[in-house]
Amino acid sequence: MFPRLKLVNFKAWRDTGDLALKPVTMLLGTNSSGKSSLIQSLLLLKQTVQSPDRTVHLNLGGDEVNDLFNFGSFDDVLNQAATSPRQFTIAFDFRRADSVRIREGKFECSYGQTSSGSVAVQTLKLHTDSRRFQVMRRDKGAYSILVDDETQPRMKGRDCAPERSIALSADVIARLDKDGPLAEDLSLAIRRDLEGISYLGPLRRKPERDYPWNKTKPGDVGSDGRAAVDALLASALLKGEEQNIVVNGVSDWLARMKLAEKLEVHQQGRSNRYELVIHRDGVACNLRDVGIGVSQVLPVLVVAYFSPKGSTIILEEPEIHLHPLAQSVLAELFVEVSRLRDVQFVVETHSEHLFRRVQTLVAKQTVSTDDVALYFVEREDKSAQLRTLQLDEFGRVSNWPEGFFGDALGETREQARLMFERQKKGTP
Fold first, then answer.
1. pTM above 0.90, yes or no
2. CA-based Rg of the chain, rounded to a whole angstrom?
3. DSSP assignment, residue 81?
4. Residue 272 contacts by C-beta under 8 Å, 6 or more apart in sequence?
5. Could you tell me the sign of the dihedral formed by the alpha carbons of 43, 44, 46, 50, in that order?
6. What is the mean pLDDT of each run of 10 residues along the chain (428 residues)?
7. How far is it, in rounded angstroms, from Cα 327 to Cα 347?
């Protein structure tokens, strides 16, 4: 999990300040305001640590198969108002429940551009509660390694360059002697948290009438939900899995959303092809023959149960193609599954129904304000600005930006005024 995130000169952001990420964090705001940039900062690091090239400092993308995003060039990532130094910074805290040696720590990395145009780490800081490792760029690609409060580098040279933004090289770890294993464990803990991020974007694949399956379990559902069905099949059919945990979870939430009574997996004869069958109102239908909303929310429900416990799930517009009630129930999904499976949801949304249900859940004391964070992103002078929405124990927001969700009460008043005017004039 990531309890804190901070960006400096990253895309639309001059300085986010310390952004607290709770078990359920919602990002709202107008189009092109900078919401996606908050999410993309972590995804940029995720695709960097997954890069096959360990010497890369930052993988800006370009591989359409393996990368989540193509960020373009250094100048495309650097905030346009950044002057000197021309650097951007990504920082976060992490916390792991499954780690014996490194349970929590801090990461901070600043990036600049070399004379050849490539991206290079300028300063890397890795912290535990009591120990600190710092990597600093010197002239001509050389780096210095400092530990704790030491003012003199333990070592320096080109071979001290960090790997994939988060790790010290094997040579540096060996030369750190007794401090080496801790530095290695710290980098490994950060890597696992980044690799463990599950991301589902706003554009998801259309349903198929049947799906091939090679009897393997996917690593994740994919940014477009392409492997969601494989995850369902693995849950239902593979021995040794938590039998049907994903299928049962998906069926339960489809029912609560009034989209279906349940979902089943059917094999096509003895082939390796399977169909998803949706039961509703006593009728069984192929997934392809029901409303598009079911197939679009399916990856959202799958990733909630398929992602490892303790991981972070990032969702963009989970509400697409859903009717208002189903959008509202998504709020209950995030709150309940976060508590049940110890996962963190970071959700970018435009849904008023989803937001209002979160308010209701707070008012009902189903969830505490300590476990929910709501942010509104807006533009000011070409840079993104972050407003923390102040939510009290009754679910009321005291500093809501005017006009974002429209004015429902104002619309009702205007309709009533026009009705009385027409009645007074005697017109129908």
1. yes
2. 24
3. T
4. 212, 213, 214, 215
5. positive
6. 96 95 94 90 96 93 87 94 91 84 93 92 94 93 94 93 93 94 94 95 93 92 94 85 82 96 92 94 93 94 94 96 95 97 96 93 94 92 88 88 65 77 77
7. 13
